[in-house]
Amino acid sequence: MAKRQLGMGRAGLGGTTRGTARVSGSGRQTSGGCRRVMRLETRAVAQGPTSTTVEVEVQCPSEEHGMKCSLERSVKFASCEPGSYEAEECPAPLTSLTPEQLEQAYERCGLVTEYYAKTFYLGTQLMTPEKARAIWAIYVWCRRTDELVDGPHASRITPKALERWDERLEAIFAGNPYDMLDAALADTVRKFPVDIQPFRDMVDGMRMDLVKPRYDNFEELYEYCYRVAGTVGLMTTPVMGIAKDFVGETEETYTAALSLGIANQLTNILRDVGEDTRRNRIYVPKDELEMFGITEEEVMACSLVTEEGGTDERWRRFMKFQIERARRYFKMAEEGVMKLEENARWPVLSALVLYQQILDSVESNDYDNFTQRAYVPKWKKLRSLPISYWMVVENRDRKSTRLN
By the 8 A CB rule, do 15 and 261 touch? Predict the structure, then answer.
């Protein structure tokens, strides 16, 4: 399965939201209604050297509902008075755990995060301790959720098991955690305006993996990417916080978080095409395979690369098209990172830089993602940290220069 990763959104967003939403690629705006994500698709690229570009609107109702709930939670949370909690507006207090027990719960989450996401964990060290611990708690819940359908016991996971996981999630937000790791998240949603809907949506994404091995078009794939990756942005942005000097719509920052989650998941999918065929899964859209003259059977047989190491030209063109789309989402995400509070920008930019390097590796492998796995060497991962840190500093210096 295409692994899902925590970023500013696998965060990343999603009824109807008011305000202004940035539109990808075109720079146009939509206002006063649902957020709409636009993509530019080069439909004629497989037919010759000339091509036309058309805009196709991607609608994702679950994303729009997740966005609406998250924005409303921020408003309601800000209006909560300590000691006057109401279930529909504020998370319940944890009364059964001592401060020492909660500290142990967060420490465990930190250890898990450090083990499985070393680069991201290092980036969280620039955050305030309270924010870093909250991000660890969210990461651990997402990882445990992902392991349900992608872990060692995935073959035995049933819809009933996901229903039980839903029940545990509801208990977390009610202040009744099942175990110590759940307790850390329960405490996090008490302290930060994190809404439950993105968590519900992620579990629904796991359900898709149980029943849906193919995606007919990009709109279907986008729905999946939102649920398993975009939701992370909605979970984490309320913790990371929005820069006090940002004067735009709050929704813009959430939208950028969503874009990073979508970009990360598209990258995972492009990296893992061969691995996914062994699970009888093809995540890339079927209609786009057809557009480039590629059949489902060829993908499943991994016959688009030769034993001599050559890559079918149709597959090269197809992959270039897919990578270009992923990079557009990364670009949208990068534009929004600087709208976060400064101490949260480094880990998000690190994830953004690192994941784009995976796409570089796919290209370096001549787009062979059947017999080769694109990866980023450890030295490159470490190098991404100072690069992303310098991007944060450079942006801050430019802003200071303008003010002076």
Answer: no
- The tens digit of pLDDT for each residue in 180-212 reads 999 999 999 999 999 999 999 999 999 999 999
Token look-up 């075109």 returns: 26
CA 17 to chain centre: 20
b/e for 36-56, b at 16 or more Cβ within 10 A?
ebbbebbeebbeeeeeeeeee
> Could you tell me if 297 and 373 are in contact, meaning their C-beta atoms sit under 8 angstroms apart?
no
pTM of the model: 0.83
Backbone φ and ψ for 301, nearest 5 degrees, come out as -85, -5
Q: Taking all residues of the chain, what is their mean pLDDT, rounded to a whole number?
A: 82
322 and 294 Cβ atoms separated by less than 8 Å:
no
Cβ–Cβ < 8 Å for 279, 3: no
Per-position DSSP letters for 369-387, written without gaps between them: -SS------HHHHHHHHHH
What are the start-end ranges of the H helices in 80-196?
Answer: 99-116, 118-124, 129-150, 159-173, 180-191
> From CA 388, how far away is CA 130, in angstroms rounded?
22
Q: Rounded CA gap, 381 and 309, in Å?
A: 27
- Over residues 342-369, the pLDDT tens digits come to 889 888 888 898 899 999 999 999 999 9
pLDDT tens sequence across 17-64: 222 232 233 333 333 333 444 444 444 444 444 444 445 678 899 999
Tokens 């519900």 identify what position? 200
The stretches of 241-372 forming alpha helices (DSSP H) are 250-271, 273-277, 286-291, 296-300, 313-337, 342-364
At which residue do the structure tokens 């699970």 appear? 279
- Give the other-Cβ count within 10 Å of 90's Cβ: 19
